[in-house]
Specification:
With 434 residues, this protein is an alpha+beta fold. 46% of the residues lie in helices and 12% in strands. The strands form 4 sheets. The chain has a 5-stranded antiparallel beta sheet. α5 packs parallel to α10. The longest helix is centred in the C-terminal third of the chain and has 22 residues.
């Protein structure tokens, strides 16, 4: 029998078996179908591949969510009504997540290793989400559990369940640091970020407790750079162990100090604000797939923290308008064009049309941009070295992301991008004031 007919026959036979009541349901059916198709040498789409650090797919660090886990969560989350099937597994690498169809709705389920996010750290995020929703921000609700909270610990895992975001997940398969696809998208996400910053006002929680994979301003936002850097590393034994006795202090301070010296006098004049810290197009839902789509929902607050609005805008520029995955730190001039100036201009225009920047913010933004990945890169080191034991990725985060990004801004392409940014900031504010 030809291979494609063997596949059809195997799937049909399994359908007859698993359609009998009490024979296991859709989760077991899917698993049996995949197993049979692999046995018959049929092509099965890999539902568990994850994004790697260089723009490709790799084996995930964490096992995919399973049907048995969904049934267990149905006993814990009141709104999690009779789960029926897993519709899609997220390729994002730092947790396991999936869309789950229940008897009444489709929900988004996320499972974290407790070393990365425990219940307390998720509740920090959920309180910020609740504040934004109360202020009218386009954020999906977090579902309450029967344990008087919105996050649940089971064994070594921590779970959260969100309602399905409104709109289209247009960048579902996009890697972080891939530029947006149109000027319209860049303008729309700039505008949406400004609206979120306005909604964030009044949320006055302290900065989050140290965890792997967390962004903040503990180093860059300090008036005492060397002391803050040392304290940051000392607080994170995995980072200290990875860096060891190398000359990392001198290398990092040499890279940061010339930029930070210009930023330092401005820090006390910039008001604190809770921010998203990971404003990429893939963390937004869109009204449609067109180049002129608008933002319909905001997701993934895993990096949110107490910060500064203009530093969050710098992160948005870094995430959406520079093609970092094309960067080769050994050949800086060859990749001068990774900065997408028209996208940057559109994003700044969209932001300033809603929330015009003050003079000191315009001056600080290019400096924050140069340093945008410093703390998150070290937090990635903590995750890769201390949690999953991947020192190759830890080296990549330290060498290519922390040091390499700053090096690019000093090279020709980065300098040209920063000059264009300063010009756009003047033009964007003038248009907003008109």
């Amino acid at each position: 029998m030809p291979a494609h007919l063997r596949c059809i026959n195997a799937v049909w036979s399994l359908h007859l078996v698993t359609s009998v009541p009490n024979c296991g349901g859709n989760y077991e059916y899917e698993e049996l179908v995949d197993a049979a198709m692999r046995h018959m040498n049929c092509r099965v789409v890999d539902k568990t591949a994850a994004h790697d650090m260089k723009g490709a797919l790799t084996a995930p660090d964490w096992p995919p969510l399973t049907g048995s886990e969904m049934h267990a969560l149905a006993d814990v989350f009141a709104a999690f009504d009779r789960p029926r099937r897993l519709l899609w597994h997220s390729p994002r690498p730092f947790s396991a997540a999936a869309l789950v169809q229940t008897a009444s709705a489709t929900v988004f389920v996320k499972r974290h290793d407790a070393r990365v996010r425990n219940v307390a750290s998720l509740l920090e995020e959920h309180r910020f989400i609740a504040h934004l929703r109360a202020r009218g921000s386009l954020v999906p609700a977090v579902m309450p559990s029967r344990r008087n909270g919105t996050a649940v610990a089971i064994d070594r895992w921590t779970y959260e369940v969100h309602e399905l975001a409104a709109g289209v997940d247009a960048y579902r398969e996009a890697h972080s640091w891939t530029p947006v696809r149109s000027l319209g998208h860049a303008r729309a996400l700039g505008s949406a970020l400004a609206h979120m910053h306005l909604a964030a006002g009044g949320f006055d929680a302290p900065a989050r407790q140290p965890r792997p994979l967390l962004a903040g301003l503990d180093i860059v936002g300090s008036a005492h750079l060397a002391t803050a850097l040392e304290h940051f590393v000392t607080q994170r034994p995995a980072v200290a162990a990875f860096l060891g006795t190398s000359n990392w202090r001198d290398r990092v301070l040499e890279a940061l100090e010339p930029i930070h010296a210009l930023l330092r006098p401005m820090l006390s004049s910039l008001d604190p604000l809770w921010v998203h810290n990971d404003w990429h197009a893939s963390n937004l839902f869109w009204t449609d797939q067109s180049a002129h789509a608008q933002v319909s929902a905001i997701i993934d607050f895993g990096l949110c923290n107490r910060g500064i609005a203009v530093a969050d805008l710098a992160t948005a520029l870094e995430r959406n308008t520079i093609a970092w995955l094309e960067l080769d730190v050994c050949a800086q001039d060859a990749v001068a064009g990774i900065g997408r100036v028209p996208l940057m201009q559109a994003l700044v225009q969209g932001y300033c049309a809603v929330r015009p920047l003050q003079s000191i913010e315009r001056e600080a933004l290019p400096l924050f941009l140069c340093l945008a990945h410093v703390e998150y890169a070290l937090s990635e080191v903590e995750y890769f070295h201390g949690v999953v034991g991947n020192d190759a990725n830890a080296r990549l985060a330290y060498r290519d992301f922390l040091l390499g990004h700053i090096q690019w801004f000093r090279a020709r392409g980065g300098r040209q991008y920063l000059e264009a940014l300063r010009a756009a900031l003047q033009g964007g504010n003038k248009r907003a004031a008109a």
